[in-house]
Amino acid sequence: MSESQSIMLTSGVLIVRKINRKTTAKMFRNLKIGDRIELSTSVSRVGSYANGRARPAYITAINLATNEINTSTFNQLSNILNAFEFEVE
Fold first, then answer.
1. In the prediction, which pLDDT does 1 show?
2. Strand-pair category, 84-88 with 68-73
């Protein structure tokens, strides 16, 4: 399967319902209650470094109000998302 044919996984629209703590993460630092975001990633092989360690997998976050796009690793994003509570639209 080529990159143009890759399978995309999306979260659907998530609405910010509560802010548990402030964050300095680029796209998330200005989120307000009621803002809507969507997360997506493509299903593809991420590969590995020369030392055998796996490369990180990335996920894209889109602020639907501002169209701001940010890409983070899954590890980074999980820490950032803990600063908020979301509801699925």
1. 53
2. unpaired
